[in-house]
Write a structure and sequence with these properties.
The chain has helices spanning 17-26, 40-45, 55-63, 95-127, 141-169, 171-190, 195-223, 229-254, 260-266, 268-281, 286-294, 300-315, 323-338, 354-372, 375-380, 382-388, 397-422, 424-448, 453-469, 471-482, 488-540, 549-556; strands at 2-5, 69-73, 80-84. It is mainly alpha-helical. The chain has four domains: 2-84, no CATH class; 91-282, Growth Hormone, Chain: A, CATH 1.20.1250.20; 286-338, no CATH class; 345-558, MFS general substrate transporter like domains (Growth Hormone, Chain: A, Up-down Bundle), CATH 1.20.1250.20. It is found in: Membrane. InterPro entries: MFS_dom, MFS_sugar_transport-like, MFS_Sugar_Transporter, MFS_trans_sf, Sugar/inositol_transpt, Sugar_transporter_CS. Belongs to the major facilitator superfamily. Phosphate:H(+) symporter (TC 2.A.1.9) family. Residues 101-545 form the Major facilitator superfamily (MFS) profile domain.
Amino acid sequence: MALTCAPPLLNLKLFNKQSLTHYCVTRKCNPVNSVTDSNTRTLRYRSCSFLADDKGLRMSLLRSSTKRNSIKVGVSSGEAESFDSEATQQEVFAWSSVILPFLFPALGGLLFGYDIGATSGATISLQSPELSGTTWFNFSAVQLGLVVSGSLYGALLGSLIVYPLADFLGRRRELIIASLLYLTGALLTAYAPGLGVLLVARLLYGLGIGMAMHGAPLYIAETCPSQIRGTLISLKELLIVLGILLGYLVGSFEINAVGGWRYMYGCSAPIALLMGIGMWSLPASPRWLLLRAVQGKGPLQEYKEKAVLALRKLRGRSNDDKVSEKQIEDTVVSLKTAYADQDSEGNFLEVFQGPSLKAFIIGGGLVLFQQITGQPSVLYYAGPILQSAGFAAAADATKLSVVIGVFKLLMTGVAVLKVDDLGRRPLLIGGVGGLAFSLLLLSAYYKFLGGFPFVAVAALLLYVGCYQISFGPISWLMVSEIFPLRTRGKGISLSVLTNFGSNALVTFAFFPLKELLGADNLFLLFGAIALLALVFVVLIVPETKGLTLEEIESKILK
């Protein structure tokens, strides 16, 4: 018969110690081998952890918590046939220890969002004869497009650059370089003497975006406890939205100042400096260090020692802590097992093969649908939609942007609070379904509901809210955790490239499509794409809530 209960509290003498130790190293759960005492009542009675004679192992086990374990008890022989633990070991940690390893990488996302928000006001300031403070304010449409899209081009280029270099640089160094690019781009923009320097500065800032949007989710995912990974990476999206709102606010304060665009862009420099100093103070990702060891880039023992020290620093543990040593040993065993029959290092095309291809279909598909469901276009229409509804504040573009930014921030907060509780799939399914409905509602408004402006307002707010609880944070969360460690750097850089490439496609195709189809049919097209995205999520996207990165690789991608 099969009995499901908590792990029995048994003395270590009831186990084969050699088998127990091996099981402990190779499995992410409390190890139990043959159980000679198979009394059902006793098994039910006993506690959720077991004692070990070895003090170090006992302390390690007592600090860990487990979920349910399935025990098969052989009633005919009186011996347990097997003990199959499917529990996921929950790491014990202090919230204070995860704040800085999250915050400093996430500042890269805030700086990305800030550029989006600041540019909306900076373009107005730059083109004003009275307020630009320059003699070269009279931009052509192409020149203005290059200024606005310069950071996007830089992000695309940055994504291409990190594809072959991601595993060589490592997550920490990549983010330090990103902060330097952010800082240089911001200062050059603020002091640009002419259009040429301004365009170069925008490109440099964009390079920082490309590297930060690649390195930040990687570093956070690889260094945080698995049970809060979803929350922290979703918080990174919250910081992007906070950056957008901050850019809007600075723009609203500086919009009437002469040369205000310089202040709008230059205000990002102190944040970039803080990001660089912060990343310099943090250790390298322990998983990246172990990956380099498995790839044969240095002595395994040396990299293991570095990884243990890094993990202790990240968790705020003492130098004689044994839990970190065990966690690193478990990860080494997982990596060796995963790559036992493979070359030590993935090649250029491996992202398009086997488990990595499956991961790219999931992650790349999400960031693609994130953009081609029309997110840039819907926000472009926010002003006209609210104006048609009679909102006086909509006459002031900067104030309108702040209102939308606050709402985006609130809805992203909802996703952050629920992503590790409800899971990824429920939020994606509900959010993308809401996106499709809101886009069809906008299409109906422009087709035959023009006399009911509240419909447009409701559709706009529904779209923004549904996007921020689904594609906004969860796409990047899934991208950061779905790829195997072996190809994670290349896979995420390719996903970032897909995201920014599709962003550019939607941005540049918007006006031609609007003229060709009209606003009503354009939103109808986006609605149809959103329905296709919903089918993709339901059929393809897995649930990763609560799984470690190694478990995602072994259970979902195999």
